[in-house]
Amino acid sequence: MTRHGGDGVAGGIVPPARGAGFLSRRSFLVGSAAGFGALGLAGCATSDALMLAEAAKAYGPIPDEKFPIPAVNIAKLDPKFFRRTVRYESPEAPGTIVVDPGNYYVYRIEGAGSATRYGANVGRNGFLWHGDAYVGRKSEWATWTPPKEMIQRQPEAAAYAHGMPGGLDNPLGARTLHLYQNGAYTLYTIYASSDPDTIGKGITSGCVGLLSQDMIHLYARTPIKTKVVVLPA
User: Fold this and answer.
1) How far apart are CA 149 and CA 158, in angstroms?
2) What residues pair up with 96 in beta bridges, in sequence order?
3) Which of 45, 54, 61, 143 has a Cα at 20 to 30 A from 3?
């Protein structure tokens, strides 16, 4: 694996501000809204309406979670990042996860030249890496602990040095896939984000984020030992 600067399990993912005492996600994830205009052709308009209706269903609320997940405001998500099945030729076996940070996509190989594609956020400049890994551990509503390197850079994170319990404010979100190499935890994850504004951007210290609804969809289909390929950006 080639790395450039990554510093931990959530080196670039931090709690969003929901009230006093919580750190601002944007204060750490700094470095589009997409409007939907009326189309002149009735056929295109019908197709767009169907696509939006399907997206609204896919990204609707999930009330039966331990911490109920709200619906995604899909007006803030570029339609190219909606979850969909696409043609994708790959030599990898079905089930393999392929991260394409240059285009902000995560693919789950389905076989027969197709894949499920998810929009993603990825590592910012200086924190990109590539190589092969595997899912060594899975967790739901995981505790988030900032690594010491992050605390050194951003002292506010020290408030969570002993861990932040799972919940909607926790930056790991509802589901986490922990990436390993040769039996060792890389400190990188594929995690759940509740912020559609982050999708299609480089904001983390090497971790990869999917919207919560997409992450739950991928998580359910990903067993331990699943191969993960991170392509060069």
Assistant:
1) 11
2) none
3) 143
List, edge to edge, every strand of the sheet that includes 114-119: 84-87, 114-119, 105-111, 97-100, 227-230, 131-140, 175-181, 184-193, 208-211
Residue closest to 81 by CA, chosen among 44, 110, 107, 45: 107
Give me the DSSP letters along 101-133: TTTTEEEEEEETTEEEEEE-BEEPTT---BEEE
Pick one of 3.20.20.150, 2.60.370.10, 2.30.42.10, 2.40.440.10 as the CATH number of 25-30+79-230: 2.40.440.10
Digitized pLDDT (tens) for each residue of the chain, 233 residues in all: 544 443 334 444 444 444 433 343 433 333 333 333 333 444 555 678 888 999 999 999 999 999 999 999 999 999 999 999 999 999 999 999 999 999 999 999 999 999 999 999 999 988 889 999 999 999 999 998 888 888 888 888 888 888 899 999 899 999 999 999 999 999 899 999 999 999 999 999 889 999 999 999 999 999 999 999 999 98
What one-letter code names the amino acid at 59? Y
**Residue for token pair 């969570």:** 160
By CB neighbour count within 10 A (0-12 exposed, 13-18 middle, 19+ buried), where does 185 fall?
middle
